Design the sequence.
């Protein structure tokens, strides 16, 4: 059996300076409390602020636009942003541990693209509105697409030489995303204009007001998948030793790999089915946290949930505030890409220098 509190060895670090200070040895409670407070602050700000100015006093006085925005419109949208950010961040942390690659994250690996393609196929076939279970069928279709993309990328990486595995993963993910985007664009030409407009959102990543049924469905999918990953946090620490050493300590590496892949696909599929492609959240949050608290996934995973939620809420708020003078707002996926793209290039450059 795997030791329930297996601590990550120094060889496990995805960042070479991750535990050179005693920060990683401190109690996790202050970190989690600080992350929870940051999330609460972001949620409150996202509800109170937006493209339309509202008054809390007028909302308390009686029905009107202010109460509608503060009670019925913004809270569900902010909840979706928080759920999406939490899920994408925790999946990015799990992928980086499983593949032992700091560049691994759902968007880069093609998982988000595969999930978007699965959801697009469901919409093109009318499954999303064909039955009362449409809100649950879309995440299921996206889950299947994300799982297929994950298995494809992982299969390519397993066949590559060890020294080229990281490059193979990145190239395979990029190609899966390109193929998925091309197929989504092709499907847009085969459906009605109204449905084609609905399909466009999978390529840009929007946070919009979800229906109660859809929000409940994505919450269940993300909660179940995240719970599976949190349960395996100590086992993910052991993977840093290498597969053979982890198996010698009693870890069933193949079973863990299957569980992580399924859980990640479940989370990403549900999120993408409502928001489309929101990239780089799973890269920014784990990388920043690893440098702050070290490589222990028992702390990294819950912190990723909290700060990932805070990040996407903040990006959604920025999209609403910074461009309201234009009478429009950019997709959240564009905001996260502007933040994550430079960070991705910096990490890639640093990893290349370390290999020289």
Sequence:
């Amino acid at each position: 059996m795997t030791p329930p509190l297996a601590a990550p060895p120094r060889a496990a670090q995805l960042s070479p300076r991750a535990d050179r200070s005693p920060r990683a040895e401190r109690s996790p409670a202050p970190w989690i409390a600080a992350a929870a407070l940051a999330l609460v602050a972001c949620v409150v700000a996202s509800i109170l602020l937006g493209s339309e100015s509202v008054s809390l006093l007028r909302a308390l006085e009686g029905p009107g636009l202010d109460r509608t925005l503060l009670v019925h419109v913004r809270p569900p949208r902010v909840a979706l942003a928080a759920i999406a950010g939490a899920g994408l961040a925790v999946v990015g942390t799990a992928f980086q541990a499983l593949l032992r690659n700091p560049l691994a994250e759902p968007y880069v690996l093609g998982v988000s693209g595969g999930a978007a393609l699965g959801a697009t196929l469901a919409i093109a076939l009318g499954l999303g509105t064909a039955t009362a279970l449409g809100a649950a069928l879309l995440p299921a279709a996206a889950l299947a697409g994300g799982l297929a993309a994950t298995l494809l990328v992982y299969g390519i990486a397993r066949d590559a030489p060890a020294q080229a595995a990281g490059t193979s993963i990145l190239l395979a993910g990029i190609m899966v995303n390109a193929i998925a985007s091309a197929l989504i664009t092709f499907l847009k030409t085969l459906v009605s204009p109204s449905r084609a407009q609905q399909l466009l959102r999978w390529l840009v990543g929007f946070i919009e007001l979800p229906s109660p049924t859809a929000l409940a469905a994505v919450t269940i999918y993300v909660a179940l998948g995240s719970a599976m990953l949190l349960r395996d946090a100590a086992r993910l620490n052991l993977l840093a030793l290498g597969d053979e050493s982890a198996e010698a300590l009693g870890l069933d590496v193949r079973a863990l790999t299957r569980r992580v892949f399924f859980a990640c696909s479940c989370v990403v599929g549900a999120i993408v089915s409502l928001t489309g492609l929101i990239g780089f959240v799973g890269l920014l949050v784990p990388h920043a946290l690893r440098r702050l608290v070290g490589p222990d996934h028992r702390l990294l995973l819950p912190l990723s949930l909290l700060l990932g939620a805070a990040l996407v809420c903040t990006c959604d708020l920025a999209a609403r505030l910074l461009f309201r003078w234009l009478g429009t707002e950019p997709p959240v996926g564009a905001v996260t890409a502007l933040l994550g793209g430079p960070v991705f290039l910096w990490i890639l450059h640093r990893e290349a220098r370390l290999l020289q």
About this structure: DSSP finds 15 helices and no strands in the chain. Confidence is low (pLDDT under 50) at residues 1-24. Residues 88-355 form a domain with the ABC transporter involved in vitamin B12 uptake, BtuC fold (CATH 1.10.3470.10). The longest helix spans residues 65-99.
